[in-house]
Amino acid sequence: MALDPIFPKVYKSLLKPLLFLKNPESAHHFTFGLTKKTFNLPVVHSIVQANFSLEDPKLEREVFGLKFKNPVGLAAGFDKDAKLIDEMAMLGFGFIEIGTLTPKPQEGNPLPRLFRLPQDEALINRMGFNNGGVLAAVERLKKRKSKVIVGGNIGKNKVTPNENAVDDYLFCLEALHPYVDYFVVNVSSPNTPNLRDLQEKEPLKALLSAVKNANDAKEKPKPILLKIAPDLTNGQLDDIIEIVQETKIDGVIATSTTINRSVLTTPKEEVEAIGAGGVSGKVLASRSTEVIKYLHQKSNGAFPIIGVGGIFSPEDAIEKLEAGASLIQVYSGMIYEGPGLIKRIKKGLLAYFSR
Q1: Active site annotation includes 189
Q2: Where is the Dihydroorotate dehydrogenase catalytic domain (predicted)?
Q3: Is 79 labelled as part of a ligand binding site?
């Protein structure tokens, strides 16, 4: 049943308005639960596979030693607890990043903590690393069926002081190591107090060195990536390049959410009423691309970059790749454009790669 030509219109005219009647976190849980219940029903499974899959050797990419079926990934934050990997794989993602996971379960920040800004096609979140803990995620990973590449995004618990942060990252690395294909060290969330302090040069170098050494001691080391904020200065980005090269980690994810509200056109009083949180969505596209381009050019392409931030179309994805990204990830774009976005991006990339 060929639905993919009309699905974007159906999503935007019918499904999205219904979902947007709910508050954002309720809508997330609703779609999450519905996907879990329905995608594995034989008829639904067949329809999803027929309409969302697109495979072609021209889309394949080999990056930090891993072979990706295509360069379009699901960013961390959507499936924090590894509950929906098999179902998301059906939508045609080349890789899926789970997390951010912490050693102990934590509830995150008080509700409400996720907000839509439709005028900007943006989201504001202050989730606060809400997750069920890394050990619960491991039990789910043991049971997954799909072969999709999975990344483990790891962080520290809110109650862990920064001077002990390395212990939390090492705990998560140890627990997840047999079950994920790569790791992401997340020090860029603005929603855990003082976490971004770990992006400073010396603390970051110490943290990454400890994680890299623990990983290298394994029989089969996994790629280690660093996720950075879009709010870093050029001087700080220069430090990132130096640290990546000194510690010999495998790459960078650019970028997480921004704390810069000047990019928004939503009325200031509406934004101020929402309060603290990181901004994602279309408004992040330009800055994210700038960071990717800066890192790529200043480092002479010394390490792979996964580009994320404001990807709402095939053109946005191509822009990230032309700036120097090897792979891309989506999240907010899928909320506003629907899950058909993944196939549309892949079609656009296929045409781009075939030129």
Answers
A1: yes
A2: 59-350
A3: yes
